[in-house]
Amino acid sequence: MSISERGNRFSDRIRGAIKLVAPDFHDRASDRENTRQRKLMLKELQHPVVRQALAALGHPMRVRMLAKLIDGPMVYQALAKLTSLKPGPLYHHINQLRLGGLISPQE
User: Residue 54 — φ and ψ, nearest 5°?
Assistant: First the structure.
């Protein structure tokens, strides 16, 4: 199956309406409260810490690394073996995850 065929299959699954996955405030509050809650949620998404974390996850290799780090700490050589990256690019991805506040060095 070619990449374009896989892309078409994916787009077939999402042809319906796309909506923001957020708490449904409509049942519990007035429309005014609903609007206020959504504005608050958007404001929180624009917080610098949240933006940095989301930006750090903007590369598939970083998501893969983070998924592996969720299982437990790894040494630099194990991450290099997992990703098959050279030292420079690996350092860049590790640094981006660190700057995003998603990982920290273990003493």
Answer: -65, -40
